[in-house]
Amino acid sequence: MLRLFLLPVALSACALSAAGWAAVQPARAERPSSIRLYVFDGGTLESDVSRYELTKEEVGTTELSIGVYLIVHPKGVLLWEAGAIPDGSWTPTGNPVEQRIVLADSRERRVTMRKPLHGQLAAVGYAPADVTHLALSHYHWDHTANANAFAGATWLVRQLERDAMFADTPVGAVWPETYTSLRKSRTVIVKADEHDVFDDGTVILKSAPGHTPGHQVLYLTLAKTGGVVLSGDLYHYPQERTLKRLPVFEFNAEQTRASRRILDAFLERTRAQLWIQHDYEADAKLKKAPAYYE
Ligand SMILES: [Zn+2]
User: Fold this and answer.
1) pTM for the predicted model, two decimal places
2) Cα Rg for the chain, rounded, in angstroms?
3) How far is the CA of 30 from the centre of ligand 1 (A)?
4) 116-130 burial, b for 16+ CB within 10 Å, e for fewer?
5) Separation of 142 CA from ligand 1 center, angstroms?
6) Residue 119 near residue 181 (C-beta atoms within 8 A)
7) Spacing, Cα 143 to ligand 1 middle (Å)
8) What digits encode the pLDDT tens for the residues 169-198?
9) What region does 83 belong to: left with phi over 0, alpha with psi -120 to 50, or beta?
10) 198 C-alpha vs ligand 1 centroid, how far in Å?
């Protein structure tokens, strides 16, 4: 049986602090000698395909996966994305728990949660304090939920994105209370098209604007798996790529088209795989933490 919660539009920042995190004391993991990529279960979002210029007949499923990823490098630990539902705002039951949230745009979102992020981190040996770096593809609500819990990490963000996040009235589907603590984080403003996080070419933030002003993707080079690009929201449904469709809510649709063309050339050149984070069927096939890609 699903439990329903209606979250208020404006939750106070303190309600979304790291409540609940302190209870978990993971056995601290040793840093491995080569990179590991852990894929976490961030829940499932029921979405409206018409907002992506698609029809139900064109997509395999209307559901979107919510990806959260931990990249453990010999020199540091990067969290990529922070989920859709803050851990402190729902109670795991062992069964799927449906959350309904209403943001400032008055549209209701339904997310089915199975596992809190902190428990998944603990299961691989990490507490939020062990995460040295935080990067988000962009600031929409389904990517920022637990960001406040990682305010102690170094935040890697582009200036245009940070400015949009902390505008008086942030534009788009946003949940600003989930990321207010980042305002005071140690912050690296990423200026280059490609930013080499650990200075060895294996973990690279790559600019891909359009969905939001400072949207970015993450390019990883793994010893066994090879090159992987984590898409952010450059695409949601894989049919956006095959049928050349765009979400109707892009910050700048022309920029998104250009970013897609540039990434296609990059994928061609590097032979990297593209993992579309919101692609439900592709995500379902990925091995989830505590298993990992290396
Ligand atoms: Zn998204």
Assistant:
1) 0.91
2) 18
3) 31
4) bbbbbbbebebbbeb
5) 5
6) no
7) 6
8) 999 999 999 999 999 999 999 999 999 999
9) left
10) 25
